[in-house]
Amino acid sequence: MSDNPDTKQIVEKLTDKSKDLSRWYTEVILMAQLADYAPVKGCMVIRPYGYAIWESIKERLDKRLKETGHVNAYFPLLIPESFLSKEAEHVKGFAPEVAWVTQGGNHQLEERLAIRPTSEAIICHMYAKWIRSWRDLPVLINQWANVLRWEMVTRPFLRTTEFLWQEGHTVHATEAEAEEEALKILGLYQDLIQNDLAMPVIIGRKSEKERFAGALRTYTLEALMPDGKALQAGTSHNLGQGFAKAFGISFLDEEGKRRLPWQTSWGVSTRLIGGVILSHGDDAGLIIPPNIAPTQVVIVPIWQSQTYKQVREKVDKIYNSLKSKFRVEADVREGYTPGWKFNEHEMRGVPIRIEIGPKDIEKGQVVLVRRDTREKKAVAEEDLQRAIEKNLTDIQENLFEKAKKFREKNTREVSDFQAFKRLIDKGGFLKAGWCGDEVCEMAVKDQTTATIRAIPFDSKKDNCVHCGKAGKLVYFAKSY
Question: How is the chain split among helix, strand and coil, in percent rounded to 5?
Fold first, then answer.
């Protein structure tokens, strides 16, 4: 075995996930080499393996966006203070999180520049220049970028000072078109998160208190993590006409009348990686859903010096037969035992491991191991491709169903506030009535730290859990 210190670190026993989720989470990120702490507090370095997962998510979402007519662009990182101040509610909502540039080189700046916490201000300034007539609409632009929000309490991927995301910013002629866009994107996000990341989510509208600063309506996707806390996995906003008024965006309609357009914005971020880690990992490390796994299949040879040539030739042959169909890696590194390699690839969450040794070659087979269930089975070499395809599909479905069952088990309906206070400490989603009054919403938050995570689109009538007045069922939970 190699004396490389990373070797020893990989095979260290992880903290029990069920006993100390927070410590387990940090250990997995560091040991699986997803990210590391940066010198600046609250920032992280995303290492190649972690970035490969982000690239996979990005590729799948980017494809969905382009298929629905969206195009990518890029806007500046620095935003003049006067721009950010134009929409009062927006600047008020972000003021505590904004980092400012006040000096360039040796010169004091005449106007402070904000490092973007989000890009509505700079993008709306450009849209005011570009949009003239109804023929220019709709504008369907997305950008992949980094943003900076000065957070006090941070955790890698879940909440960091700087993070990566995409932010879409669209402009439409009518309110109906903007609303359709906001809900369409919500559906794209739901498809990505559930079908590729294997994380079940509830969708709905945010309360007025929880909506995006400056938006008309905010729609959300909420996932439930193993500690019973909700993770906001993405949001889509109908911005209404507030930003158009503030930034002077207007267009001439088909009758020659000047009108204000309607806008949307929406985004998901590297927070999704944190959700994947928490949702699927176990006491051996990560379990990456096959659809987004950088490596779907790893081939690990089992050899001695006298069988090296025979096994290596077979490994190369199988690798070459699979590489056009799957994201496959042959781990032929020397100086590492097969057992160490097993531990490493389990820690990194590779969905399928293929083991090949001299005895397997004699039998014309390989050993296939599933990461999610640890199930081992011998597979004839000629059946290997079909077996991998089936197992990748089964793993993807199993991870989603397991997470869904957990959510269902930890979603409760409650009508009494005393019971609410007892149950919320156990974690999970609580479905309870809310009258729509912010006073009751804040009273629940103040007494329990739980917030309204989503108001379902099909919410049924129920009396408010706090005041008893008529209302609708909503989802409450504690959150990150």
Answer: 40, 30, 35
